[in-house]
Here is the input.
Amino acid sequence: MSIDWMTIILYVILITWGWFSVCGACYDFNNPNLFEWETNSGKQIVWMGTSLVLATVLMLVEKRFYDTAAYVIYTALMLLLVVTIVIAPDTKGSRSWLPIGPVKLQPAEFAKFAVALALGKFMGEYGFSIKKTKHIARAIGMILLPMVLIIGQKETGSALVYFAFFLVLYREGMTGSLLFCGFACVVYFVVGLRFSDEFIHNMPVSIGEFTVLLLAMLFTIGMTWVYCKNWFVVKVMAASCLGTTFLAMLFSIFVIPFNVCYIMLGLCILMICYLIGMAIYTRLINYVLIALFAIASTAFFYMSHTMFEHLADHQRTRIEVLLGMKDDPRGAGYNVNQAKIAIGSGGLYGKGFLNGTQTKLKYVPEQHTDFIFCTVGEEEGFIGSAGVLVVYLFFIWRLIVVAERQPDTLGRVYGYSVLSIFLFHLFINVGMVLGLTPVIGIPLPFFSYGGSSLWGFTLLLFILLRMDAERNLKRQ
Amino acid sequence: MQDHHYENRKYVLGGIALLVVLSYIVRLAFLQLVNGTDDYKVRAESNAFYNKVIFPSRGVIYDRNGELLVYNQPAYDVMVIMREIEDLDTLDLCKTLGIEKEEFISRMETIKDRNKNPGYSTYTQQLFLGQIPAADFSVFQEKLFRYRGFYVRERSIRRYATDFGAHILGDVAEVSPTDIERDDYYEPGDYIGKQGVERSYEPDLRGEKGVEVLLRDARGRIQGHYKNGVKDRKPVPGKNLTLSLDMKLQALGERLMEGKMGSIVAIEPKTGEILCLVSAPSYDPHRMEGKQRSKQMVEMQKDPMKPMLNRAISGTYPPGSTFKTSQGLTFLQEGIITGSTAYPCSRGFRFGRMKVGCHGHGAPLPLVPAIATSCNGYFCWGLYHMLNNRSKYKTIQEAMTTWKDYMVSMGFGYRLGVDLPGEARGMIPNADFYDNAYKDNWSPLSVISIAIGQGEVTLTPLQIANLGATIANRGYYITPHVVRNVEGGQLADSLLEKHVTKVDKKYYEMVVAGMRKAVQGGTCKSANTSMYEVCGKTGTAQNRGHDHSAFMGFAPMNDPKIAIAVYVENGGFGAHFGVPIGSLMMEQYINGELSKASESKATAFQHRHINYGTRER
Here is the structure.
């Protein structure tokens, strides 16, 4: 057995640091006892203790067990998710908490490891090929099923975490173009919306629409370059699209102002026709896919506007505030604004342990769970909060190392699943506190208060560490 | 089954992690190090710390005999927490508070309007109705339990125990934005002295606000004292004032000035303490109490008689013949005349075509009878000889400057520095003034009327009274002031300063003799009494309308207790209003009461009104 002590040390550092942050976030000026069961900091000690027990137990369970039971565990947890929808009491509009005795558990936190195991098991099976559409479709299905169930519990935030598994698929050979498509979608949405009501100087041309169409053209041309490597086609498309757009712009500026986007839309359609023509001519599927990308790009952009109009008011305002289109420090922007005040007031060294006022007096909502990073920022300043991020970077780097050295697909896929989940949580959680990503209520691993999330993350991590400990045994 | 095909993609994933962490660190650096950390700090503190202000009690005000004049009475503010309002019977509430439904609605809207009420929060108490006196409040108090979300805050309102002296006492009102800008002690909703001693002694009267630093959570709920109250401060109560005013004298003065415009100022010569400062028309100080103040202010500001104007210190008038005393003193000191110098007067001062009229009296005469008969000719000749004395002064300008310096040394031309706001400085012309006015081409004749207190010369009634005090003191005065004592504090040094004029005591004795003679057998005959020796000088100041009636005097002659100036606008001869009013005032102060005869005389003067018409003045 070769246990990876370095990861365990990082784990201990993170949960300890996390405990101090919870103390800071929950400290009551009238009740200075940090260790009482009544206080959240006291409870968090119990969650930490039980997590260590859980970790020890997990280190005793052989990898063989997971290999055998992966699908059973997956099925069981999916059933649990279904059951939860039905029997869980309504807490703040979501039905995701199961009360078991004195504690409440959130099955969604535990479903992640089941998906990771099942995905590893499935992709490690003999004959699996990520290139086969049927196989990749089943893999994606295994990811989407819990997402749908969790959305059914009205916990959209937790459901989004499952997008992290696409990083795993990417590592296992799924074409990068899918990730790129996702990236493109986000860019279209953000740029298109943010600048939809701003116009290019003196012209009836929306900056958002213009930029998105231009990007769609550039992306399409770029993909043709990368995936078809037909220089002639690239040159023709680039010259005609960009040239015509440029001429149209000149005409609009100097002769008659008109909406250049119509011309660009026409160009996109021409480009798509040309790509389909090339597909028929060369019999290369890539042209079809690229044409589809172009169609999807334009369609997504125009549809996203309609979709946006149909979002619930509070969701729409949230997005508008995030994109800086609306300033609403007392409404939708309240959380983020107060979070910024908390972090900004910390300065370089912070206000010191238990001295933060923003978080303790509950100006930042959910300050001990989703917005825990505020406490770090307020009490420990730049040094503390940047320190946490650096430790996390080490932690993720260590997980990559661990995942890469797994002798089989199950171990590697599981390892990457774990690191992707941590990365996604870190990205969204810290991003929302800093006002960079939308406010999606997911915890910061090891920092946010709560038994379910701490146990869930411990479970994820220590199954990997046990698998890793066996890596040398198998070779013999 | 090992798959090293895509191993390089680990760098992509690692790169993503690195990118995320790095960009977040940059963002943190922006928030915490670059982007106005102080601003965020201030915002965090204003979020969390609630400085609960504890108001000190304002100092009360007494007169020189210990009579209470101004005090505080508890009053109540009705506060509201919007979020807690539930099942409110609006009509019943309006009825209890005695307001109209429309007022209720508009008040609620003002509270919610963040432009007018920047500190608005639905969780904290907002001022609904201020300054409700205790009597009106008790009904509301009984019903308070029925109005959920409504609370009571104790405040105090300023009450007056006297009907007189409004101009001196002044008033208190909510601070204006300018007040807040000028002194960061004040916050919106605080009270500040607006006029009178309330304003000039504001720092003493107000005390020092105390503060309790409380921690407030996001809903505005109080979470206890910050660090067990180490930063709390107890309020320091305001200091009580004792005025030098004799309220009985003030009351008599206001009574005598009923239906007239003008002033009476009385000063204790030895100390400079102002014994009464009547400005007529005046107003009832009770009008400034509580929330009716602003309405009353508007009403009084519209009044063409300008009752708000404190004429005693802000009004500037030609001093008329009362000024002649200062002229005599100057000429004596400068050696222009001696006690025996006599000037002719043939029904006035005649020089070529120039004539300043005078009444009939024996001529020529020296200084003492000239003062007693108030001879115009005498003082015009005096000034003429002074300004034309080329052996003493090289130019007329030099002579004029010398003259001006004498006037300034007697407290004219500049503010005396009384401890009340709004003092005017009056006007003493100097050489430059005439150089400008006459384009360097002027002679003593051009300015001759200043010798008899006409022309360019103007004084405030306070300055005229101070002239009386200076003569009573034979050559010096203490800055006149209305506050005698600040409890536990000290009067400003400038108020106790002794100002010595440029004229020797022996010359003053001559003027005193003249003023005594005026009472014994001159223009002030009616002021003569066997009880004490009165010295006086009348003044009849010409102006565009009917002459102003003035009197300046002091008594007793050899141990002066009171110096007085009376100025009645358009009152005619000095002897007409000035002398009788002045003598009644002196009697009241020196004897502490009026004799029966004087009392009926006072009532007669009280009812002798002057018709001023209704035009704006």
Observations:
- The mean pLDDT of chain B is 88.
- The domain at 247-288+312-607 of chain B is CATH 3.40.710.10 (Beta-lactamase).
- The first strand of chain B starts at residue 49 and ends at 54.
- Chain B has 23 helices and 20 strands.
